[in-house]
Design a protein that fits this description.
8 strands, single chain, about 180 residues, alpha+beta, 4 helices, Alpha-D-Glucose-1,6-Bisphosphate, Chain A, domain 4, 8-stranded antiparallel sheet
């Protein structure tokens, strides 16, 4: 009998039938502090679209982290996933207590996603000599179509890569003014 190794990249169905997606990212020039700042300062649709100009449609805080802190913040977004489906997905993302996460890296964003596809996510990341290394985890319901699962994987790879194109300059202009 062989022991299954944990998935390190890609997506598959777990023993309980749910989808697991893991994507690894190398982010040269982006620090964990920049990413930490980003989560609390997306703030506008215009800024949200910087992260993925073709898939991101709208952004608004339902519960701002400025109001009650990071845990419990809720954002309402509309986005495509790698260009699908035909109309953007309306989602609400609620940030959870990262102390509950089973993370390997030093910095963690843990969240629950309400909408279709329903699920949870964790972005964990740490400093490296070149910037940051990130691993994104998603868990979706078993009934999520594989087309959506694959599209989410590709979308995540694209948006995290996009951090390298705008986040260092944005962070410096906003934090160090």
């Amino acid at each position: 009998m062989t022991t299954l190794q944990p998935l390190q990249e890609g997506y598959h169905k777990t023993e309980d039938g749910k989808w697991e997606i893991i994507a690894n990212h190398e982010l040269p020039g982006v620090t964990p502090e920049m990413i930490d700042w980003w989560w609390d300062h997306i703030d506008t649709t215009e800024r949200y679209k910087l992260w993925h100009p073709t898939d991101h449609v709208s952004f608004e805080w339902v519960v701002s982290p400025a109001t009650n802190g990071h845990v419990g913040a809720v954002q309402r977004i509309e986005e495509f996933l790698n260009g699908i489906p035909a109309t953007p997905l309306p989602l609400e993302i609620r940030w959870e207590d990262a102390n509950e996460a089973k993370a390997e890296y030093d910095h963690v964003l843990l969240a629950t996603v309400v909408g279709e596809p329903r699920g949870d996510l964790m972005h964990e990341y740490q400093a490296t000599p070149f910037g940051a290394r990130m691993r994104s985890h998603f868990h979706l319901a078993a009934e999520a179509p594989e087309e959506i699962v694959n599209a989410l994987y590709e979308h995540n790879k694209q948006e995290m890569h996009n951090f390298t194109t705008f986040l260092p300059d944005l962070y410096r202009s906003q934090v160090r003014g």
